[in-house]
Amino acid sequence: MFRQYVLVALISMLIIDLLIFSFLLVKKIAKNDVKRRKVKIQNKYDKLFLHLIMDTDQSMTITPKTHLEKQVLHELVLHYNTVLSGDVRKKLLDNIDKSFISVRINRYLRSKSIWKNKVGTFLIGEYELNDLLPTLLEQLNTPDQELLFVTARSIIVVSNDQYIEDILQVVTRREKMTKQNVLTLIDLVEGDIEAILDKAMVEGNSFLRAIALEELGKRNYMKSIYWIKCMLTQSEKELRIAALKASYSLGDIGDESYLQGLYQLQTDPEWEVRAFLAKFLMKVNRSPAIDILTNLMSDQNWYVRYNASNALLAQGEKGELALMELLKSEDAFARDAAHAVLQRGILL
């Protein structure tokens, strides 16, 4: 009797193993078949994508018919995203059917994995899914800084400047994001945002004002000149540095009173401010600029001397003459810095 039980048990285990093996075999065959068909579709679409990238005929497009073809096209759009023109990319996305994409993205957003949340959030921007904007706006309250950056990026990509003020308020509150990351986000905004930046200068904290001022200069808005003059006398060195960075973007605009205010920073107590002044003066080909740079060559801080020497070298003949004069200086710092930069200039 016992032997019969053992035999039945062994046969049962064998049947179960065979069923599992059969299931795994069928699954593997099906998976390989799907993979083979995906490769075949991808090879066909790859050739079409090359035509879309190289050809000026914007009427050409790809129209997937099956679920698998949509999936392959979805993956290829992501792969070729950076080299596709906006119109071609939009046409392809319309052909995929955004509801197909939304299903996958919503699955990512609901996932407990923060990494999948970030991927889903990024894809909302890449596919410009306007219907998911409310989700992104709610997600601005996330404590995760990387997710916050991706969320803000996707909001800007989808809506341009519509919610830029909300984003700036969130990301600059308690400095939730680095200044460079905030500037990267603002750079994505197309069109005129001078009024928004001007409002930030009036109402924002020091962190936001420094960001807004740099961006005002970068976009060559004339209102930046007014704010540069205002920030030069602020007690926070970050605001004085932001004023110099904005000035560097503008260059020499021919305004003598504006330049005089900047020249005053040569005696600033903070070495970072003096270093940025030296960098700015690289763009000012005037005698006072060369005199100030010559003085900064004797600065106690190495970085200030380094910037001053590079700025003098960039001034052309007058700057080179000033550097050669410094070779006779009694100041060892100035003499060594002048020698090093002149030697580098000869090698270049």
- Low-pLDDT segments, ≥5 res: none
- The CATH superfamily name of the domain at 252-348 is Leucine-rich Repeat Variant
Number of strands: 0
Spatial extent as radius of gyration: 31 Å
For the terminal residues, how far apart are their CA atoms? Answer: 97 Å
Order of helices and strands: HHHHHHHHHHHHHHHHHHH
Protein name: HEAT repeat-containing PBS lyase
Transmembrane segments: 6-26
InterPro entries: ARM-like, ARM-type_fold
Keywords: Membrane, Transmembrane, Transmembrane helix
Description:
By secondary structure, this protein is mainly α. The protein has a domain at 252-348: Leucine-rich Repeat Variant, CATH 1.25.10. 74% of the residues lie in helices and 0% in strands. The relative contact order is 0.04. The model has no long low-confidence stretch (mean pLDDT 84).
What is the strand and helix layout of this fold?
Blueprint: H1 2-54, H2 67-79, H3 86-96, H4 98-110, H5 114-126, H6 133-139, H7 145-159, H8 164-172, H9 179-187, H10 194-203, H11 206-218, H12 223-231, H13 237-250, H14 256-263, H15 271-281, H16 287-296, H17 302-314, H18 317-326, H19 332-347
